[in-house]
Design goal:
The chain has 151 residues and is an alpha+beta fold. The chain has two domains: 95 residues, Winged helix-like DNA-binding domain superfamily/Winged helix DNA-binding domain (Arc Repressor Mutant, subunit A); 54 residues, Dna Ligase, domain 1 (2-Layer Sandwich), CATH 3.30.1490.190. It is built from six helices and six strands; from the N terminus they run ααβααββββαβα. The strands form two sheets. It has a three-stranded antiparallel beta sheet with strand order 1-3-2. A three-stranded mixed beta sheet has the order 5-4-6, with no helix packed on it. Strand 2 and strand 3 form a beta hairpin. The relative contact order is 0.14. This is FUR family transcriptional regulator. It holds the Pfam family FUR. Keywords: DNA-binding, Iron, Metal-binding, Repressor, Transcription, Transcription regulation, Zinc. Its cofactor is Mn(2+); Fe(2+); Zn(2+). GO terms for molecular function: DNA-binding transcription factor activity; transcription cis-regulatory region binding; zinc ion binding.
């Protein structure tokens, strides 16, 4: 999916970014929009909380959120990652490029790293392991963010 962030309303986001072949339900659209507007990966529990804050009368079931995240993962529109600072997996929409994060070990904030530092390393690994096909990679930098350092 190549869906870059633009300032626009929800209907035009869905029209422009909704993956073909994925059934549109109001639950899926709401989950998709929460992921679309998020600056960092979110756990299913965080998405569940945001949904219920957004539409308290709707009362989403946690199982609905989880099932829809699994469906999104199956069709390849979300990335599921388990970070060492999280007890649960986190999810984010696959946009134009993949991301790596610096994670604060105090507040657990996930700060995107602007470029992928692993491209050169991937080439070196590929050269040293003939026949090995690299299908992806993960990088997580742990530390303390400026806000926590200044407290």
């Amino acid at each position: 999916m190549s869906c870059k962030i633009h300032a626009e309303n929800s209907d035009s986001i869905i029209e422009r970014c909704w993956p073909s072949g994925v059934k549109k339900t109001h639950q899926r659209i709401d989950i998709f929009l929460i992921l679309y507007h998020s600056d960092e990966p979110l756990s299913a529990a965080e998405i569940f909380d945001k949904l219920n804050q957004k539409a308290p009368k709707e009362k989403y079931a946690f199982s609905t959120v989880y099932r829809n995240l699994l469906a999104f993962e199956k069709v390849g529109i979300v990335t599921k990652t388990t970070l060492s600072t999280e007890d649960n997996a986190v999810y984010e929409l696959k946009k134009s490029s993949h991301k790596h994060y610096a994670v604060c070990t105090k507040c657990h904030r996930k700060i995107p790293i602007k470029t992928c530092p692993l491209h050169d390393i991937s080439a070196a690994v590929k050269d040293s392991l003939p026949g090995f096909e690299i299908t992806g990679h993960q990088l997580e930098i742990l530390g303390i963010c400026n806000e926590c350092k200044n407290k």
